[in-house]
Design a protein that fits this description.
Strand content: 15-25%
Radius of gyration: 19 Å
Strand order of the largest sheet: 6-5-4-9-8-7
Number of strands: 9
Distance between the termini: 34 Å
Helix content: 40-55%
Number of helices: 8
C-alpha cells in the first residue's frame, strides 16, 4: 500500500504484470506471472485478458509479451518530450560543438525525433529528423536498450553501454561519424535517448560523455518534475 493513501490492488497487479513483461523480452507464462506477483492463476488470467483488450499485452503461444498499445501511449509523450528536450539539446550542442539529437524507440527502430546544430560551427554533421535505423545500431539506439533491464538478446555494445551509463559508436550510422548517447530514464523501460554526433574517427573526450549523461538526466528530471541537474552551473 502507498503511504499517501489507499491504492487499487487490481491496478497495482496489472501494472506489476506490465513491469515484469518489460523485464522479460521473451515473455512469461500465466503460471510464471502468478508466481511473481503471488496471485492465483485465475486472477492473472483476468488481468491478462483485460490488458489484451487494451493492446497492452499480446499472447504468443503460451507466453505473454508487451503489446503495441504501449508504443501508442508512449507516442503521446513525444510532444512534451520535444518541448522539454529542445533547450537541453541546444545547450548540449553549443557546449560540445556537435549536433545534438533526441531519439525515440519505435518498435525495433530508432527514430531521430529532434536535432540541434552547433550555432558557431563552420563544419558539423547534419542529422535528418525522421531518420531511422535499427535500435542495435548507433549510440542513440544502443543507449535506449542499455537503459532497459538485461535481456538474453543484449549485444556486447549494449552490455558495455549499460556498464558505462552511456553508449559510444564510431562509424555505425555514417562513415566518419562518432556518436555518444545516454538513455532518458523516466521509467524502468526507457523509450528515448539524448546524445551527440560529430565528425571524427576516435572516441570523444570523457568530458563529452559526462555532458551527454548529465543532459539526459536533466531531461528525465524535467519530465518527471523532480529537481535536477543544471548544465549551466554544473550541479
Amino acid at each position: 500500500m502507498s503511504s499517501g493513501g489507499e491504492t487499487s490492488q487490481t491496478l497495482d497487479r496489472g501494472l506489476t504484470v506490465l513491469a515484469l513483461l518489460a523485464r522479460h523480452s521473451d515473455g512469461l507464462t500465466a503460471a510464471e506471472l502468478a508466481g511473481h506477483i503471488g496471485a492465483a492463476r485465475a486472477i492473472v488470467y483476468r488481468l491478462l485478458r483485460t490488458l489484451e483488450a487494451h493492446n497492452l499485452v499480446t499472447r504468443l503461444d503460451t507466453r505473454y509479451v508487451l503489446g503495441f498499445g504501449l508504443a501508442e501511449l508512449a507516442s503521446r509523450l513525444r510532444p512534451r518530450l520535444q518541448s522539454v528536450a529542445l533547450p537541453i539539446l541546444q545547450q548540449l550542442s553549443q557546449r560540445t560543438n556537435s549536433t545534438a539529437i533526441l531519439t525515440v524507440a519505435d518498435g525495433d527502430q530508432a527514430l531521430v525525433l529532434l536535432t540541434a546544430e552547433p550555432p558557431d560551427s563552420t563544419m558539423h554533421l547534419a542529422m535528418r529528423e525522421g531518420a531511422r535505423h535499427p535500435l542495435t545500431v548507433g549510440a542513440d539506439g544502443v543507449a535506449i536498450l542499455a537503459g532497459r533491464p538485461p535481456s538474453s538478446s543484449d549485444t556486447e555494445d549494449v552490455l558495455r553501454a549499460r556498464r558505462q551509463g552511456y553508449a559510444i559508436s564510431v562509424g555505425a550510422i555514417q562513415e566518419g561519424a562518432i556518436g555518444v548517447a545516454a538513455p532518458i530514464r523516466v521509467s524502468d523501460w526507457p523509450t528515448a535517448s539524448l546524445g551527440i554526433v560529430r565528425i571524427g574517427a576516435n572516441a570523444p573526450d570523457p568530458a563529452v560523455a559526462d555532458l551527454v549523461t548529465s543532459a539526459a538526466a536533466q531531461a528525465a528530471q524535467r519530465l518527471t518534475g523532480t529537481p535536477g541537474f543544471d548544465m549551466s552551473n554544473g550541479h
